[in-house]
Design goal:
With 210 residues, this protein is an alpha/beta fold. It folds into 2 domains: 7-18 and 84-203, 3-Layer(aba) Sandwich (Rossmann fold); 20-79, DNA polymerase, domain 1. The protein is built from 10 helices and 8 strands. The protein has a 6-stranded parallel beta sheet, sandwiched between helices. Helix 9 links the parallel strand 7 (167-170) and strand 8. Helix 1 (20-34) packs across helix 4. The longest helix has 16 residues, at 64-79. The two termini are 13 Å apart. Bound molecules: magnesium ion (MG). Magnesium ion is lined by residues 11, 13-15, 47-48, 151-153, 173.
């Protein structure tokens, strides 16, 4: 296998982007279309797990797949424009590139929907892998040369551990710093503003980037 330039991996929702306004709008549109109530505020307070898991709280089991399809049809129209970058996200990606590292986004969101967010916000990823969660993210992390994985959810720390790379927790989502430490984070940041300095510190002595 050819060696790839080392990368910093990022989760998407609540790590690089604050998608709560967009996802809230998409859930409300889903309720409007299906007549099935989804508490959109509650749903956006616990982003991270797969869409199916959330919809399983609201729809009868035999209707979940159809609800997934409908939600994904509504998503581009409702969820993209209201979504904004998390504080420090733009600067963090720039810092990764300045260090000669690649940016890899690995998310539970469907790849094509994740791509719409990145494109709309002008966030550039060298690689994007979607529809992956927790341990399921590990193969993509290894495959794309991810040396550190940054995420807001305990499941992201599980992904990093499974891939045997340090997990960097950011406490900008539903999980507290204590949750992230307990899930095996090697560092925990309040937000991405602290990432460039942390990377400069931990990347020193970890060998050449390639
Ligand atoms: Mg997340």
């Amino acid at each position: 296998m050819p060696s790839v330039t080392a990368a910093v991996g990022f989760d998407l929702d609540m790590t690089l982007i604050d998608s709560r306004p967009g996802i809230r709008a998409a859930y409300r549109a889903l309720t409007e279309q299906t007549g099935v109530y989804v508490d959109a505020d509650l749903a956006v307070s616990r982003l991270g797990p797969p869409l199916r898991t959330e919809l399983g709280h609201w729809f009868p089991p035999e209707q979940v797949e159809e609800a997934v399809t409908t939600y994904r049809e509504l998503y581009p129209e409702y969820a993209i424009t209201p979504t904004v970058p998390m504080p420090g996200a733009v600067e963090a990606l720039a810092a990764v590139r300045d260090m000669g590292l690649r940016v890899v986004v690995v998310t539970s969101k469907l790849g094509r929907l994740a791509h719409l967010h990145l494109e709309h916000l002008g966030l550039v990823a060298d690689e994007l892998a979607g529809d992956l969660f927790a341990e399921g993210k590990a193969t993509a992390l290894v495959e794309h040369g991810v040396r550190w994985y940054v995420g807001d959810h305990v499941a992201d720390m599980v992904a990093a551990r499974t891939a045997r790379v340090p997990g960097i927790g950011v406490a900008t989502g539903p999980c507290s710093p204590d949750d992230l430490w307990a899930a095996g984070a090697s560092s925990v940041l309040k937000d991405l503003d602290g990432l460039p300095a942390l990377l400069r510190e931990i990347a020193v002595g970890s060998g050449p980037a390639a």
